[in-house]
Every structure is written in structure tokens, then in C-alpha cells.
Specification:
The structure holds two protein chains of two kinds.
Chain A lengths: L1 E2 L6 H15 L39 H12 L22 H4 L5 H4 L11 H18 L3 E3 L5 H18 L7 E5 L5 H8 L3 E5 L9 H10 L4 E7 L11 H10 L3 E5 L12 H4 L3 E3 L20 E3 L34 H34 L4 E3 L11 E4 L2 H6 L3 H10 L6 E2 L6 E4 L7 H22 L17 H5 L9 H5 L3 H5 L9 E2 H6 L8 H6 L1
Parallel strand pairs in A: 3-4, 3-5, 5-6, 6-7
Antiparallel strand pairs in A: 2-8, 7-8, 9-10, 10-12, 11-12
Helix pairs in contact in A: 5-11, 6-7, 11-14
Chain B lengths: L2 H6 L1 H6 L4 H11 L4 H8 L18 H12 L20 H8 L2 H4 L11 H18 L3 E2 L6 H16 L10 E5 L4 H14 L2 E5 L10 E8 L10 H9 L3 E6 L10 H4 L3 E5 L15 E5 L11 E7 L4 E6 L5 H4 L12 H39 L12 E2 L5 H7 L16
Classes of the chains: A alpha/beta, B alpha/beta.
């Protein structure tokens, strides 16, 4: 089989012909693509007649100048890490260093076909082998599969290894997975996809797993218990003291422990899933190991497992597989292989000491922000000594009562201060979860805290009746350049309060390009392709 | 540390934000004396690591790039003719420099905060529009992880649509044509069993579908490069109330009647050849397009148009109530991460070339395939597929050719693999 493509040339055709001709000693007759009849290799019954890409956007960017400006025009509407901190809890938006990323563009890495013969990707082999070893070491496990393309796919793959393990021991009836209520929503979704029944267990008031409830469930289901899915440190940003006990409890009842690695940035170099007693974990390389989020992907979700589960790691039709390997979870043998380079570089350049230091500073940064905010906001959950891990939750629910302000209002108001909101309403509705990461310096942390504290003052003005309950900077956030420049301004607060609420904002303003989005309208009137140009005129 | 050790460790100072003096004042604010004390108070002593980690490094950025060049040299980049869902292509430099290598495009998060994400939302809407246009189906999502996953998601979606009551599964079977890509088959084998789907792999021309089937998957053009007319199969499947998924190739669809016009219910595939490097497997954006009736069941993220508080047009992720965050164990898909950056690249590639440009690229590729086919015929090799887009399957007494290819010339080395 020979597949041609955009890059194929007439010379390539001649090269291929030479090989065939050398086998049967034939003489190549001259010909060219232009001399062949126009595409009689496509059946007339299947020749496309309908038009496509008729919208103006596909017809107005032909010159490089137009294209470059279109790209910049769109880029300018988006707040990215080159604007300010993106403190999304549980997402670890750390530095994506240029040196980590540059090699992804090298032809030696990006021009290799995933099914190419093994002697053509020895460089990748070395990187894959080393990265697998390092990730196994970092997680305290025996083996790693780099195949899963996302955290959720890693969860799925990890759960399938648990399933295969039980089946291999003639215990295929073990089909119940316990999941604490505080878990990320992908956990139960992945468990169901992997064929498990989900039993949800409780958390106590401090946000920790309710060990008694877990114990009751583990014992009740001990004959069908396949395992537990647990996030550590917890989705509430706390290193639960009871974690070892929890793992022992699951093992004692015949189950295995899956650890969600979303919060691994609080563990690297200080503790590890293997050390804690888990059997398998996934890592979000796009969180802890510096792969950028790409505006919603790519990501990578390798899984690391102990000896028990190693034989069941995903195989692939193009690889030599262990006889017990499960089938592939991704199309390509090593998932999105080229971006493994980023995590490889991250580990190699920081080294063990630098990674440990990163974890420590991530924890320091979170605790520093917490210390700056805790007098003015209620901080939910903390460890027994009052510290948080690498992230913490700010409770905004009280303001609904006192000022009619919702968490979303605060999130949108942060945009007026040049900031992307932290994680909104996860894992607790009506809260924000802040994860600064180690890459942010003190000045940036201070700006963010200043912004939140100033917003607290704005809320206080509503509480005190000095500011209108519905017409205030929070309810109207975010504010756009267009409305500020308009000749009419009807709000009771000033334009300056609206868009330059603190000095630093005035120096380097990021402008949201639209006012607050109405989600319900769009879901009722679903339009998911570029509308005809006429509709813009009507709007 | 000596000056040289300092150099080795310099990246840590680039990666980490706070300087020593800042760290002291931050600790003071927290009310703790040292970083060690903070960590000791935060992480239970019983779970602390006893031994330091064993990993490579540290290395300065310069040292790293130098050492990586040596590793890169062990990869051999030959002209690949392997295909099977991954193709060489030309990433326009303007897209490489301004999107792929630009932190203004690659460092953002998923566009949950739509007001400060209108740029990539617009680009992803373009991606969806492009996929809809090329596949001939009215609604598409903003990308999935890869083609195998997209096929599996299509299978799950149809399975759940047909079998609403999981305790009484009336139609457990999913037909998979044997000529789909092997790696897609591999992923389907993984995904089918745990949810109770029975995969039936066979030939679409001979299989007899009955009411036990909820769906079927075909590849267009198939893994052997064959372009087949699936219309009668699709009609037969619909007569049994089974839905049809077509795995397809967006470049080929510039020349071929699109799946939507053939009656397919879902089209999936890999958008990689629209300007995204092969990268030894990824990342690439897979696409998923379907009929209107499934619009509330589509897996993954969909970008939709709405209005803002002032009534102006804006974009945001639509139908988020379908997502696992809300549906939890009732969710039928765990899709979270997509391939936004790569979907944006593919969308930009089509914007830069337009319909005319894409058609030229597709036609050029196909003409070369036809030239190759004819010239091979002239020297005694006939291809088995008479209808093809870019892939020809050559019939031959393989032994001689294989022997010859034990020491292939550099330019054709990569052909070898798929000749087995």
C-alpha cells in the first residue's frame, strides 16, 4: 500500500517507480501527473458536487498579511498566561517553558509517522523509556503507560487494568467502585465506561472522606468490591491524614486503589501515590508536567501502576504486547507522543531537587494567598495545622444573602481586574478554588489578592446599601471598551471604577471583548456553525 | 554550589516565581519560620518520601537542547507513504509561528470564561463549520482526542441512544467493517466490552444486519485506499433502524460525495492532515459530526452562538449540562480534554487555503496517485483498488520485492512497512 499526500512530488513518484522497476527489471516509461486523465480514479457516482466553505471567513484570508492579522485579532481577545496568572484550582496552569516546547517543532520529532518501523524512531524510544522510568519513580510505581491522551482517558485505562486484574484472578464479579462525593465528575463517568457500578461515599464537614461511611460501604460490598477512586491531596486541597488507613481498608476488602493524579503538583518529591498505598494513578502531564493546555487540549494522561497491575497496561496493534495487556485506549501507540518531549524536558531541566522545590513553592504560594485573604473571606477546609496544600477554596456563598452576589459575579468581575477566574463552583458550589502554582512570583500573587480584596470592598458597599443591589460593578461585569467609550453611561458608579478599579489595571489593561454571556439563550437557540453574514447585520 | 553547578540548576530559577527574599516575607505573612516547617505542617509525616526521587537532570536549558539534538539524531525522518490516518502535510509557516509556537494560542485554559476567550471560541466555531461543510452533516463538536476515540464515542452514543434502558438491551450489536484502520479496531475492542456492546467485525458487502444491531462503522476511503459506494448498505442499515458511522478523511471529502449526502448518521476521523504535524502519533484533533437529532447527545465540547448582556453576538461552550461535571455517573462519556490547539490549526489551514485551495491540494494528491498507478501498470504492477483517492494497493508477488527492500534506499524506506 502506498499513500500519497500534500507533500508528494513527481520526483517521489519516480523514486517509488525505480524500486518497483529494479525488482522486475522493467524500464520506466516517462509520464507525469498532468498527462493523466482528470481523476478517473474517483467514481462518478461519488464525485462531490456540493459546495463547501462558502462562508466569508474561509474566503477572505488568502494573503499572509491577512492571515497574520486575523490570527492576532483573535489572539487579542483571549486571556492567556502571557497576560496574567490563571489560578484555576485543580488545573495547575504553570509555566510552559519555551525550551520545553521548541523541540516539538523539530522535524526529527514532528515528522515521524506513528506506525513507522522501530529503527526509525530510536530517539523517541530513548525518550519514552526514560520518561516511563522517571514517572514510575516519581509516583512510586513499577511501570508506566504513556498511551492515554487525557486525564479522563488515563482514568479509564487505569480502571480497565483493575478490571483485567480481577478477571485474571477469576474475580470478574468484583464490579463496584467506591467514589467519594468530592471527586471530579470524570471519575464516575470513567468508572461507568469501564463497566463498573459506582457507589458514592460521604465526606465529613471538614471535606475529608468520611472513613466510617467508606468502611461501611467497603465491608458491605466486600465480595464485589473492585476498588476506590480517590484524589490526593483531596479535591478540597487537603492532605488527608487518613489516606493510608483508607488504602489499607480497600485492600483488606479485596479492592484496589485508583488515585486521581490531578493534584500531583502537591506531591512530587514530597510523597507519592505508591508511597501512600495506591495501586494505580494517572498523571495529567498538562498540569504537573508543564504541557500547555492549548486552550482546551492537547493533554496527556499516562498511567503508572504497581507490580500487580503492570501486566495489564494497554497494548497496541502496532506493538509487541504482554499477553495480558488490555487493548489500546488511544489510536497511536504512545498517544500524543510529540508533546511527551515537554514533560521530558521539564523533568530533565529541573531535576529531582528542582521538582521538589517546585512542589514546595506551589504549596507556599497557595498558603501565602490564603494568609492574605483569610481575614476577609471564609476559606473552606484546611489541614489539621491550618495549612492548605497547593490550592484552597474561597467561600462566596455568604454574599448571596448579604449582597445578592453570586460566585459567578465575582468570577466575571475579576476579568475587569485583568484576571481569569479561579475554578468556579468545583468541588463546592458557590465557591472559587485558587491554585497559583510555583511559577507565579509574589508581585503577581499580590495583584490577584489585591483584586479579590477590592472586590470584597465592592461587595461591602452593596451590603452597606452604598451601592445598588442590581446595578453595581459586579453584576454588570465584565465591562467592555465599547460601553466605556459610549457617550451614555447610566450606572451609579464611575467608568473608572468599572474598568480601572486598581492602579495596576490602568497600566496594562486587558479588555474582555464581550459583556456577560447569556448561556440559556444560546442553548435554547442552538447555533453551532458560523452564521450567514446577514445575521450579523440583524444583531 | 560552584558556578558550574549553579549553571546546571539555573532552570529552576526560571521556572519558579518567587525569589529568596520574597519567600522569606511570604513565610512571615503565613506566620511560619521556614519552608520545611510549612511542608511538615501540611503533609503528614507518615507519608513523606524517605528517599529522594531518581530522575535525570538538572540541566541548563542550553545543555538540554544540545543533548536533545543528539537524541533527535537517532530518529530517522524518511518520506513516509504509510498513511492509515496519518499523513505528511505542509503546516503553513504563518500558522506554525503564530499559533503552534505562540503562547497567545497555546497557554489558555478551556474556554469556560467565555468573555475572555472569544478568539479561540471563534476559531473553534470555524473548525465546526469546516467539519460540517466537508462531511455534509449539520452539527459538529469542537474536536475529540483521536480517530479511535471518536469512533468509540460514536459507538457509545448510538448504543445509548438505542438502548435507553441498560437493564434491557434490545440491540447490543455494532457492525465494524474489516477494512477500517487497525488502530481504530483496537480502540473499539477496548471500549465495547465493558459497556455491553457486541462488536461484529466483517465485510459490509456480505453482512446481514438485523434488529439486534444498533449501528455500523465503515471507512471512506477504507484502509486499503478503496472508495466504495456505501449507499445501499446505509439504506439497509436504516431499514433495520441501525445508524451508520463513517470514518473519513476531510481532504478526500473535497473530491468525494460527503457522508451526510450518502445518508450516514455520523462522520468521524482525524483532521491531522489539515496542517498538523504527524508528531509520531499526535496531538491531533479528531472530528465528530452528526445529524440534528443527536445534537444533545454529542460527546465532547460544542461551541455555540449566543448573545451577551447587551444583546451582542458572542460565543461560548454550548449544552454544558451534558457534561460529566453535572451528570457524573449518569454521564455516557468522560470526555473532558479535547484537542483545541490542533483543531484551531486545522481550522486555520482551511481558512488560509479556502475551498479552492483545498480542492487543489486534494486534486494534486489524487493526480499523483493516478500517475503512480498508471506508471506502475506500465511496468507490470497492477493496483487492486480501481477507485482510490490517495492510496493504492499494489498486487505483487511480494517475496522478491521484500527481499529487495531489506536494504531500501533512504527515500523509500518507509514504504516497506506497509508492504507486508
Amino acid at each position: 500500500m502506498i499513500s500519497l499526500d500534500e507533500t508528494t512530488t513527481q520526483q517521489n513518484i519516480q523514486d517509488i517507480l525505480k524500486v518497483f522497476a529494479s525488482v522486475n527489471k522493467a524500464e520506466i516509461k516517462a509520464s507525469s501527473a498532468l498527462s493523466v486523465t482528470m481523476l478517473d480514479n474517483i467514481p462518478s457516482a461519488l464525485t462531490r458536487t456540493s459546495s463547501y466553505l462558502t462562508h466569508p471567513v474561509f474566503n477572505s484570508h488568502r494573503s499572509e498579511t491577512q492571515m497574520m492579522r486575523y490570527l492576532k485579532y483573535l489572539e487579542n481577545k483571549d486571556l492567556s498566561l502571557n497576560t496574567s496568572m490563571i489560578s484555576l484550582g485543580s488545573c495547575t496552569m504553570k509555566l510552559n517553558a519555551a525550551t520545553q516546547l521548541i523541540p516539538v517543532s523539530w522535524p526529527a520529532f514532528n515528522s515521524i509517522h506513528p506506525l513507522a518501523p522501530a529503527d526509525q524512531w530510536k530517539g523517541y524510544q530513548q525518550i519514552i523509556r526514560e520518561l516511563e522510568q522517571w514517572l514510575s519513580n516519581i509516583t512510586g510505581f513499577a511501570a508506566t503507560s504513556l498511551q492515554p491522551n487525557s486525564g479522563a482517558q488515563g482514568e479509564y485505562a487505569g480502571l480497565l487494568t483493575i478490571r483485567a486484574y480481577h478477571a485474571d484472578r477469576n474475580e470478574a464479579h468484583r464490579n463496584i467502585i467506591l467514589i467519594p462525593i468530592s471527586a471530579h465528575g470524570t471519575n464516575p463517568a470513567s468508572a461507568v465506561m469501564a463497566g463498573f457500578k459506582v457507589v458514592v461515599t460521604k465526606c465529613d464537614e471538614a471535606g475529608n472522606i468520611d472513613v466510617e461511611d467508606l468502611k461501611a460501604h467497603a465491608e458491605k460490598h466486600k465480595d464485589q468490591l473492585a476498588g476506590l477512586m480517590v484524589t490526593y491531596p483531596s479535591t478540597h486541597g487537603v492532605f488527608e491524614e487518613s489516606i493510608k488507613e483508607i488504602c489499607d481498608l480497600i485492600h483488606a476488602n479485596g479492592g484496589l486503589v485508583y488515585m486521581d493524579g490531578a493534584n500531583m503538583n502537591a506531591q512530587v518529591g514530597l510523597t507519592s501515590p505508591g508511597n501512600i498505598g495506591a495501586d494505580v494513578c494517572h498523571l495529567n502531564l498538562h498540569k504537573t508536567f508543564a504541557i500547555p493546555h492549548g486552550g482546551g487540549g492537547p493533554g496527556m494522561g499516562p498511567i503508572c501502576v504497581n507490580d500487580k497491575l503492570a501486566p495489564y497496561l494497554p497494548g497496541h496493534v502496532a506493538l509487541k504486547n504482554s499477553t495480558k495487556a488490555i487493548h489500546a485506549v488511544s489510536a497511536a501507540p504512545y498517544g500524543s507522543a510529540s508533546i511527551l518531549l515537554i514533560s521530558y524536558a521539564y523533568i530533565k531541566m529541573l531535576g529531582a531537587q528542582g521538582m521538589k522545590r517546585s512542589t514546595e513553592i506551589a504549596i507556599l504560594n497557595a498558603n501565602y494567598m490564603k494568609a492574605r485573604l483569610h481575614k476577609d473571606f471564609k476559606i473552606l477546609y484546611a489541614g489539621k495545622n491550618g495549612t492548605c496544600a497547593h490550592e484552597f477554596i474561597v467561600d462566596l456563598r455568604p454574599f448571596k444573602q448579604t449582597a445578592g452576589i453570586e460566585a459567578e459575579d465575582v468570577a466575571k468581575r475579576l476579568m475587569d481586574y485583568n484576571f481569569h477566574a479561579p475554578t468556579l463552583s468545583f468541588p463546592v458550589a458557590g465557591t472559587i478554588m485558587i491554585e497559583p502554582t510555583e511559577s507565579e512570583d509574589k508581585a503577581e500573587l499580590d495583584r490577584f489578592c489585591d483584586a479579590l480584596l477590592q472586590i470584597r470592598k465592592e461587595i461591602a458597599q452593596i451590603e452597606a446599601g452604598q451601592s445598588d443591589k442590581s446595578d453595581n460593578p459586579l453584576k454588570n461585569a465584565p465591562h467592555t471598551q465599547q460601553e466605556i467609550a459610549a457617550s451614555d453611561w447610566s450606572h451609579p458608579y464611575s467608568r473608572q471604577e468599572a474598568v480601572f478599579p486598581l492602579d495596576y489595571v490602568a497600566h496594562q489593561k486587558f479588555w474582555p471583548s464581550v459583556n456577560r454571556v447569556n448561556n440559556t439563550y444560546g442553548d435554547r437557540n442552538l447555533v453551532c456553525t458560523c452564521e450567514p453574514v446577514s445575521s450579523y447585520a440583524d444583531a | 554550589m560552584t558556578l558550574f553547578e549553579q549553571q546546571q540548576n539555573e532552570f529552576s530559577g526560571r521556572h519558579i516565581g518567587p525569589r529568596e527574599a520574597e519567600i522569606s516575607s511570604m513565610l512571615e505573612k503565613i506566620g511560619i519560620n521556614s519552608l520545611d516547617e510549612l511542608i511538615n505542617q501540611t503533609i503528614p509525616a507518615s507519608i513523606r518520601l524517605k528517599e529522594p526521587m531518581q530522575t535525570g537532570g538538572p540541566m541548563s536549558e542550553f545543555e538540554y537542547l544540545s543533548s536533545l539534538k543528539k537524541i533527535a539524531a537517532q530518529n530517522k525522518v524518511f518520506r513516509s507513504y504509510i498513511g492509515q490516518g496519518y499523513y505528511n502535510n505542509i503546516t503553513p509557516s504563518v500558522i506554525l509561528r503564530n499559533v503552534f509556537e505562540n503562547p497567545g494560542w497555546y497557554t489558555q485554559y478551556t474556554p469556560y470564561q467565555a468573555e475572555i476567550a472569544q478568539g479561540r471560541l471563534e476559531s473553534l466555531l470555524n473548525f465546526q463549520t469546516m467539519v460540517c461543510d466537508l462531511t455534509g452533516l449539520p452539527i459538529a463538536n469542537a474536536s475529540l482526542l483521536d480517530e479511535g476515540t471518536a469512533a468509540a464515542e460514536a459507538m457509545s452514543m448510538l448504543f445509548n441512544h438505542k438502548n435507553k434502558d441498560h437493564d434491557h438491551i434490545s440491540a447490543p450489536k455494532f457492525f465494524v467493517d474489516e477494512n477500517i484502520f487497525e488502530q481504530t479496531k483496537d480502540v473499539l475492542l477496548t471500549r465495547a466490552t465493558p459497556i455491553g456492546v457486541e462488536l461484529v467485525i466483517g465485510n459490509y458487502q456480505t453482512v446481514v444486519l438485523d434488529e439486534q444491531y444498533f449501528g455500523a462503522l465503515l471507512q471512506y476511503p477504507d484502509k486499503n485506499g478503496v472508495i466504495a459506494d456505501y449507499r445501499s448498505f446505509i439504506n439497509a442499515a436504516h431499514a433495520q433502524h441501525a445508524q451508520v458511522v463513517m470514518a473519513t478523511d476531510l481532504l478526500a471529502l473535497c473530491l468525494l460525495t460527503p457522508p451526510g449526502e450518502l445518508g450516514a448518521d455520523i462522520a468521524i476521523g482525524n483532521a491531522q492532515r489539515l496542517g498538523v504535524p504527524m508528531g509520531f502519533g499526535g496531538p491531533h484533533a479528531a472530528f465528530f459530526a452528526t445529524k440534528d437529532e443527536f445534537k444533545r447527545n454529542i460527546p465532547g465540547r460544542i461551541i455555540g452562538v449566543s448573545v451577551d448582556a447587551k444583546g451582542n453576538r458572542c460565543l461560548r461552550m454550548a449544552l454544558q449540562t451534558r457534561e460529566q461535571h453535572i451528570r457524573r455517573e449518569k454521564a455516557t462519556s468522560n470526555i473532558c480534554t479535547a484537542q483545541a490547539l490542533l483543531a484551531n490549526m486545522a481550522a486555520m489551514y482551511t481558512i488560509y487555503h479556502g475551498a479552492e485551495g483545498l480542492k487543489k491540494i486534494a486534486t494534486r494528491t489524487s493526480l499523483l496517485a493516478q500517475q503512480l498507478s498508471q506508471q506502475l501498470k506500465a511496468i507490470g504492477y497492477n493496483n487492486e483498488n480501481s477507485f482510490y483517492f490517495d492510496t493504492i494497493r499494489v498486487a505483487m508477488d511480494s517475496i522478491d520485492v521484500l527481499k529487495k527492500m531489506q536494504k531500501p534506499t533512504k527515500s523509500i524506506s518507509a514504504i516497506k512497512r506497509t508492504m507486508f
